[in-house]
Amino acid sequence: MTTNIVVLYHSSHGSLEAMAHEICDAIEQQGANALLRTFVQRQPHDIVISKEDLINCDGLAFGTPTRFGMMASQAKSFWETTSDLWLKGQLIDKPACVFSSSSSMHGGNEATLLNLSLPLLHHGMMLLGVPYDVPELLGTETGGTPYGATHVAGSNNSNILSKDEIKICQSVGKRLALIASKLQ
């Protein structure tokens, strides 16, 4: 049985999209299917998330840029439509992780990761963080937290993902795929 992981993101300037692709690559290296989804179609290749995607997935990686320590409004609007899934318990016991990006080192990434976690916890999903056996977590001078993968994009959003940020994104995708396959 194939494990299907939804990687759901909103990206304003490309950082979250780059992180999502790193997470997808790691998921697929574990033999699982990564289903890349967005909240709104900004590019011709974007596939907009559906509730059926969530119902049918075996795990979820969810990311948005930080908006004053909170998720992007596009994501919040979507989660507000999922009460029917909550009432039926359709996401209970699915593993999930979160990822985010901000303009500065202290731009609210950790608060955003906690904010992203709230709808997942309400839906009964099992939240996965970044364990300290990921060596880049201890040495990063850019993004990365135990709550999830992060990126520091810079004040003009021109910073590409650092080597540490890439490794942390990959560790998140790998762990999510492994846990989802064990739970199947």
TrEMBL record:
Gene3D superfamilies noted in UniProt: 3.40.50.360
Record bears the keyword Flavoprotein: yes
UniProt keyword list: Flavoprotein, FMN
Pfam families reported in the protein's UniProt record: FMN_red
InterPro entries with a match to the protein in the record: Flavodoxin/NO_synth, Flavoprotein-like_sf, Flavoprotein_WrbA-like, FMN_Rdtase-like_dom
Residue intervals of the Flavodoxin-like domain: 5-177
UniProt key word Protein biosynthesis: no
Family: Belongs to the WrbA family.
PANTHER family, alphabetized: FLAVODOXIN-RELATED PROTEIN WRBA-RELATED (PTHR30546), FLAVOPROTEIN-LIKE PROTEIN YCP4-RELATED (PTHR30546:SF23)
Name under which the protein is recorded: NAD(P)H dehydrogenase (Quinone)
Organism: Pseudoalteromonas lipolytica
